[in-house]
Design a protein that fits this description.
Helices cover about 80% and strands about 0% of the residues. It has helices spanning about 5-25, 30-45, 50-70, 75-105, 110-135, 140-170, 175-185, 185-195, 200-215, 215-235, 250-265, 270-290, 295-300, 305-325.
């Protein structure tokens, strides 16, 4: 355990800086900063060899615990608040986003795993969703970092572009809030986008956004089953198949936390502490991930995913607006 301390200390310091910046400017995703800082240190300075054990521990153990604790953000109450029309809207928008971006990734001749990361990140909850599903994909560290960076860029653009378009179209507070909640990726960016409009828009946006987060549980479960089949297809059969659990333990943890969150009356302070702990652990894992990424590998991915992501951002925002207006939420 003592071997992990230098790496954990370094990563904790980086995570602290990232979250302090986020506290100063909530529109900036702390998880995106964690990836960026890990990448910058490793590529423009030097990631110390003594930190290797702690880095490995963070990228595996801490990341998985963070994903399990994400279950605290799943709230059935938010689904009840938006009603049947809202639930249908959320499911349609998220489904279109994921499958639409997968289709675009094929059109742009991109890696399907990168398309999956971008699709789920756009559709559910930004960098948090990418961190949650990454262990259940075959995506590389470079693809994961690229996806998080792209999602952060598009979410930041939404803060400026969506209010401008909303005023041009004369949207009401509730309609604009629902649009922001359905179209923007990271929770912080959703709040920032809606707060430019009004307090009523923020309330509407948060409810829709939290409803999207509820879909993270079934998506993680489906991808975990998909990944298990892939591993078995690669030769992990017979005696090795027992080593590949039907449902990974951290996914079971995610589901258990989600059930506790919705069945028991958890004090708000404890709930907030669990959510924060989840983000900090995910941040630690993403710092470790960023430290393993090299600029040459990022550059090799090329500009096509960037073009595809920006195109997808425009299409998803348009579809979200149409869905919100048709459903009247």
């Amino acid at each position: 355990m003592t071997k992990t301390l230098p790496g954990l200390g370094l990563i904790a310091a980086v995570v602290a800086v990232a979250f302090q910046i986020h506290n100063f400017q909530p529109a900036i995703s702390p998880l995106a900063l964690c990836v960026a800082f890990g990448f910058l240190i490793a590529n423009f300075a030097s990631w110390p060899a003594v930190a290797a054990a702690g880095t490995s521990f963070s990228s595996k153990k801490l990341m998985r615990i963070g994903v399990a604790l994400l279950g605290a953000q799943v709230s059935v109450i938010s689904l009840k608040a938006i009603g049947v029309k809202g639930v249908i809207t959320v499911i349609l928008v998220v489904s279109f986003t994921i499958f639409g971006i997968l289709g675009l990734s094929k059109l742009f001749k991109m890696s399907g795993e990168l398309g999956l990361l971008i699709g789920v990140g756009f559709g559910v909850c930004g960098a948090t969703a990418v961190a949650a599903i990454r262990p259940q994909t075959r995506a590389t560290e470079e693809e994961t970092s690229y996806a998080i960076g792209l999602i952060s860029l598009c979410g930041t653009l939404s803060i400026f572009v969506l209010p401008f378009l909303g005023h041009l179209m004369g949207l009401s507070d509730q309609t604009f809030g629902a649009w922001a909640g359905a179209a923007v990726h990271d929770v912080g960016q959703v709040i920032a986008t809606a707060s430019v409009w009004s307090d009523d828009a923020v309330k509407s946006a948060v409810v829709i956004k939290l409803s999207r987060v509820c879909l993270l549980a079934p998506i993680v479960l489906i991808l975990s089953l998909r990944h298990r089949k892939y591993l078995q297809a690669q030769g992990q059969r017979a005696e090795n198949s027992a080593k590949v659990p039907l449902i990974p333990f951290f996914v079971l943890g995610f589901m258990a936390v989600a059930i506790i969150q919705n069945v028991f009356d958890i004090p708000a302070r404890i709930h907030d502490d669990v959510v924060l702990t989840s983000k900090l652990l995910l941040g630690a894992g993403l710092v470790a991930l960023g430290s393993g990424v090299r600029w040459k590998a990022i550059r090799a991915i090329g500009a096509r995913p960037m073009v595809m992501g920006l195109l997808a951002w425009v299409i998803v925002a348009g579809v979200a607006l149409v869905a919100v207006r048709i459903m009247g939420i």
